[in-house]
């Protein structure tokens, strides 16, 4: 490998120079493969048990509702407690939830209400796990490598998004959904082992005292007062809540529209993941704030167009292409939003701001999932997915308007502090 290529690759992977981040990254990669296997198997199981698009929407509603209920309080917890200990608790609880799913399926006693209850339990775990994981990154790398760590974290998520569904498609067709749930339970051991091997410095006593005084109201007031943070969060709430709900309907596309089996279902999920992984390569570059803002526009536009193609495709090849484009755009948008928020937020508010990020990204999904399932039940999955595409394209139009206004402001040379820029 030429020296220049090695240098570029080393720069793109620079966050992995930190030992603690390497342990975290590899543990997450292994665990997330299991999580995606469970996600695919869970959706397939529900559709097999009920043959209902609405029940798929209800499943998504139950899984994401706890994030809406608890995410803000979880942010306060993340700012008050040791984040590694918090992750020990959440990852251990997730292991037990996956084991329970495997047990009821393998015992042959599974019923739709059981799947809904355990999805709700997983949602509670996720409500505390997500802000904990997001705010933990700053403790694993230098701040100069934070944006690269966020991009590599997305790389792990989306590599798993390719591998997990592909494995799940084979396993569901051969040994059934229970095998996917059991392997997911085992995969959490990798995260727990990585957390145990980390060497983290003790937090200063002053920082611990300030953390204990952290309040929910203070965090919300801070996020609302910084216009860039407020705009990013509100846009994410609308686009994620209503535009990202294609996943709940993928079993309908695989079984009813494309008349295919579990293998094709796994391929559809993986197609979104392949596009997302390519997006990560773009995000490992060093980008200034303007580059990240432009990513918001590129991401929403590409995702909207990809979902529009996917919505009305009648062939597997075209569906995979549409899913690829949508996956690319969604991760370009979401990861750029995450990076802009992390670069702007003060450290003492990080857990609470990332809990707001979780609330807007995941906590709004119950309503979107329920709406997608209801629309699909009444008018068909293509109409529901087209609605999601329209929301994403509407978000792109709003970002284009804001970028134009910002460019005009810069041309007029109006002074403004970088931390308080309008769109991040």
Set down the secondary structure blueprint.
Layout: H1 3-12, H2 19-50, H3 53-80, H4 83-106, H5 112-136, H6 146-174, H7 177-197, H8 205-212, H9 216-225, H10 227-243, H11 250-257, H12 262-283, H13 289-312, H14 316-344, H15 350-363, H16 365-379, H17 381-411
Helix pairs in contact: 2-3, 2-6, 2-7, 3-5, 3-15, 3-16, 4-5, 4-7, 5-15, 6-7, 6-12, 6-14, 10-14, 10-15, 10-16, 10-17, 11-12, 12-14, 13-14, 13-17, 16-17
| Mean of all residue-level pLDDT scores | 83
What would you say the CATH architecture is?
Up-down Bundle
Derived from helix and strand composition plus strand pairing, the structural class reads: mainly alpha
Elements, N to C (H/E): HHHHHHHHHHHHHHHHH
Number of strands: 0
CA-based shape: globular
How far the N terminus sits from the C terminus, by CA atoms, comes to 38 Å
Domain module tally: 1
What is the name of the CATH topology? Growth Hormone, Chain: A
Number of helices: 17
Helix content: over 70%
